[in-house]
From TrEMBL:
One cellular component (GO) term of this entry: centrosome
GO BP: cell differentiation; spermatogenesis
Organism listed in the record: Scytalopus superciliaris
Descriptive protein name: Outer dense fiber protein 1
Biological classification of the source: Eukaryota, Metazoa, Chordata, Craniata, Vertebrata
InterPro entries in alphabetical order: A-crystallin/Hsp20_dom (IPR002068), HSP20-like_chaperone (IPR008978), ODFP (IPR037389)
Highest taxon in the source lineage: Eukaryota
Length: 83
């Protein structure tokens, strides 16, 4: 089954909270990367599909970028993700 939701979960000893959920319908888990830097979480998903037939060639490209600021009191190393 195709995974359609990508959740960012804050996980620390004193706080378990949900920061964000990003819909990644149309992307495979391998298409998704996450970067946590400068108190921002960036979710990037890219997918390129090429199809060749005897008479034509088509290329589909999808790109999604979402960025979130970390809430006060949450350290960058406390951020985890799940697909």
């Amino acid at each position: 089954s195709r995974i359609q939701r990508f959740g960012r979960i804050l996980n620390s000893s004193h706080n378990h909270g949900h920061l964000a959920s990003v819909n990644i319908k149309g992307f495979e888990p391998k298409d998704v990367s996450v970067l946590v830097k400068d108190r921002k979480v960036t979710v990037l998903a890219e997918r390129r599909e090429e199809r060749n037939t005897p008479s034509s060639k088509t290329c589909n490209y999808k790109r999604l970028v979402k960025q979130f600021s970390l809430p006060p009191g949450v350290s960058e190393d406390e951020v985890t993700c799940s697909v």
